[in-house]
Write a structure and sequence with these properties.
The chain is α+β, with helices and mostly antiparallel strands. Helices cover about 20% and strands about 25% of the residues. The longest helix has 11 residues.
Amino acid sequence: MRGQLTEQKKIEKGKPLFIKVNFYIKPPKNIAIAKKNSLALFNETMPIIVKPDIDNLQKSVLDALNSYAWNDDNQISDIYAKKRYSLKPRIEIEIEELKDECI
């Protein structure tokens, strides 16, 4: 899903999910203005190794989507997350329902 949550129906209870969450966070000024960082910021490849912790970011997003995208975040069986500095801060979330043959 990109942008706002679409009008699609909530994923059924009991369906296992794979979630990919990408956190793109505005860099501090000292990082943003350093010439050596410009390419990494443009390509959004500069990892963040300071707070907030990625597990806390994940938990906030997953809890916020309870009852909207799925019944409960206990349906999530697989997850991938990353946090990078970006000049275009945002959160990208992809939701994939795992097929029955995966169970």
